[in-house]
Design brief:
It contains 3 helices and 10 strands; from the N terminus they run E-H-E-E-E-E-E-H-E-E-E-H-E. The protein is mainly beta.
């Protein structure tokens, strides 16, 4: 196992571009996992068939960070995103595993292989509470876990309850 601890930050930025840029500019983390990211129009692509062009959606970018996004179908709202510090990327392999069974528009699966053969799987998830109540987290609970790979499950589970939440 590595002697250098991996610093991971998880935060819900409530779709704020300003919060995301401030975090990217000032953080000393190796990995930043965001729930409810700002993911809006970043460019308008020219189109011969549409005079208004086609909007390109994207996340805030920063030259110190690799951006990790889930595999999103068109017209899907991005609920999670990750940023890997480029210094971490130089010391190992960071894999945004969009083919993993737990990878969804609401879950980002990041696998990290460090130079000392340490492998870690990090899952960033956002749980949108269904209108009918209960939860839609069964896909996480029914997944076969590889007991040889440490796994960290991080996210916003929207566990709003008066016993766990701050007043108001």
């Amino acid at each position: 196992m590595s002697n250098n601890p991996l610093k991971v930050i998880s935060v819900n930025v409530h779709r704020s571009n300003d919060r995301t840029h401030a975090l990217l500019q000032s953080s000393d983390a190796d990995l930043i996992l965001i729930q409810e990211p700002w993911f809006r129009t970043v460019a308008t692509l020219q189109s011969d068939t549409d005079p208004l062009g086609i909007t390109q959606q994207g996340a805030p970018l920063n030259n110190m960070w690799e951006t990790l996004t889930p595999n999103l179908p068109p017209d899907t709202t991005c609920k999670v995103i990750g940023y890997a510090c480029k210094a971490l990327a130089r010391s190992g392999v960071i894999w945004n595993n969009t083919g993993h069974p737990l990878s969804t528009p609401n879950s980002l699966v990041v696998e990290i292989d460090l130079q000392d053969d340490t492998r870690i799987m990090v899952i960033n998830t956002y749980h949108a509470v269904p209108s009918r109540g209960g939860h839609d987290l069964h896909y996480l609970f029914h997944h076969e876990i590889d007991e040889l790979t440490p796994m960290v499950l991080i996210g916003d589970f929207n566990t709003h309850t008066h016993r766990w939440s701050l007043p108001g």
